[in-house]
């Protein structure tokens, strides 16, 4: 959408407010709303001022003036506001007109520009499968003398004996038994359909939705791939629509990777490919899974840099509660065709040359999508430039269920880091591939590591409720 079309949309839809949004280091959106009467073509040239010192991980108070520069292509009409509103994502600039090097969206834009400068291709397509839970109740606290969490869902397997108004009607979802059942086991068809309708109204092409494996309302909605930055914009809008639709239904949605103990967590499997114009560069008939040599080198880059990548694709302490064997978690740093126990899967069912792609299954939705997608692209491009052959480095292919391999065979397979701190250590040691072409800066990486170490420490120093079970009677 052009600036002219945005202004036309405002007029034709009687829009009262224009909501300008940007994203912080953690991937959370922030916004400032202007009356539509205050928005004209000059707004897209001069931007919207805000205080960067109030955003964690951004600037100090002595240099707090910053500017949001709106991208008209990201515009969509907000389906939740009482007063007609349009939402527009922005890049962050300094007052002197320079891109702010700590702005995640600007990093994504620079990654796309870098791809074109390399001459390898003209665009990178991304498609995340962002899973989530829909709960009926959530309560949590973390204080000096108490710590707890509680979630509940009407369809949860633990509620088979719960007293309910009108009687308990059964048909609960068993633990690990939630993959695509029909009603009445699946109670959330309508809410997912409503989410999907609103996603399509916001400009996304929804491909499917379904119940996921876990009990207690785990769901997935897939939307069509797009270019890197546009897909990250879409994912921000996706999470906004999922959260607020759930709220309208009197429920709550979370993209937290592991909100439940003993059942599957929520991942964000990321499909990706590179094109030169309309020509797919990852396809070669007769190759392994019909992959080109370029695609294999891209996989080599992803797997070689995976420990560092995971600091950006799985950037929460909770991420590593999901990344454990036994819960369909892709902890094994190998590639394989059609094998969901590998970190990199090559889809092979109903795949056309233009649909040929690789799927990195390790990420989750605590990732800032602008940073995660940019980092994956940079790792893959490094693999292409250095011709990293994943097979020569011991990264597969492994076309067996890795979870059921003999222990001696498993011992030869490298695994993901075991904690956020380990992943941050890996990022500190292996970040040169990210700084190629000035896409990420060393300042950004150092600041990001410091920011995330503080998060990890805040969890590590707190008393965990399970420690009372283990140690109170010592």
Automatic annotation (TrEMBL):
Q: Enumerate the spans annotated as GS beta-grasp domain.
A: 13-97
Keywords per UniProt: ATP-binding, Cytoplasm, Ligase, Nucleotide-binding
Q: Which residues form the GS catalytic domain?
A: 104-474
Q: Where in the cell is it found?
A: Cytoplasm
Instruction: Name the source's superkingdom.
Output: Bacteria
Q: Name one GO molecular function term.
A: glutamine synthetase activity
Q: Which reaction does it catalyse?
A: L-glutamate + NH4(+) + ATP = L-glutamine + ADP + phosphate + H(+)
Q: What class of enzyme is it?
A: ligase
* InterPro entries per UniProt: Gln_synt_N (IPR008147), Gln_synt_N_sf (IPR036651), Gln_synth/guanido_kin_cat_dom (IPR014746), Gln_synth_cat_dom (IPR008146), Gln_synth_gly_rich_site (IPR027303), Gln_synth_I (IPR004809), Gln_synth_N_conserv_site (IPR027302)
EC nos: 6.3.1.2
The main location is: cytoplasm
Q: Cross-referenced NCBIfam families, in alphabetical order?
A: GlnA
Q: Which family does it belong to?
A: Belongs to the glutamine synthetase family.
The protein's name in its UniProt record: Glutamine synthetase
What species does this protein belong to? Paenibacillus polygoni
